[in-house]
Amino acid sequence: MTILSEFLEFNEAFVNDKQYEKYATTKFPDKRIVILTCMDTRLTELLPKAMDLKNGDAKIIKSAGAVITHPFGGIMRSLILAVYQLQADEVYIIGHHDCGMSSIDTDIIMGNMVERGIDKNLFKTLKYSGIDLKDWLHGFSDVTESVKMSVEAVRNHPLMDNQVPVHGLVAHPDTGRLEVIVDGYKFHTENQGNIFPGK
């Protein structure tokens, strides 16, 4: 039995038994937040539990390392849409310790591509076209600095509402403990006056 067939077999029982009913919610986040976090498998259930989030509480966007690599890429687009269309009033960038993006060896990745059939001459073509594959695949060496950079990318984006607090946190992938790197409320209090009563 393939993994796909296992999924489909389970899914049929899930739907037939109406197990979906306990997850019923709307497309709008109840806590009015959007989270950008890493796609690390350790965070799939751990992070929402560590934040006391249930289905429907938050929009959650995942990418390798919770990194925003392009100001007009898909991740930034999703954050913008969450704020302007889907009622998110706050943004949370949550990286984590022991992230795979902090130990990426681009030479190994490119070697793996070649082993799987990618023509290595394509790397030269991409470079000639202005795409440095090593730079594009590169991760980061310090998760704290990476989170700060992503927070700044969102906060300073020309299309982002500057009244939206952008928080930066780092999670421990084993315990779920959160460390605040950037307090978005504090930033607004210090730079624009306290626009968040009670914060």
From TrEMBL:
Its cofactor is Zn(2+). It is an enzyme of class 4 (lyase). One of its GO terms (molecular function) is zinc ion binding. It comes from the Bacteria. Its EC number is 4.2.1.1. Keywords: Lyase, Metal-binding, Zinc. Pfam families: Pro_CA. Binds 1 zinc ion per subunit. SUPFAM superfamilies: beta-carbonic anhydrase, cab (SSF53056). It catalyses: hydrogencarbonate + H(+) = CO2 + H2O. Zn(2+) binds at residues 38, 40, 96, 99. PANTHER family: CARBON DISULFIDE HYDROLASE, CARBONIC ANHYDRASE. Belongs to the beta-class carbonic anhydrase family. This is carbonic anhydrase.
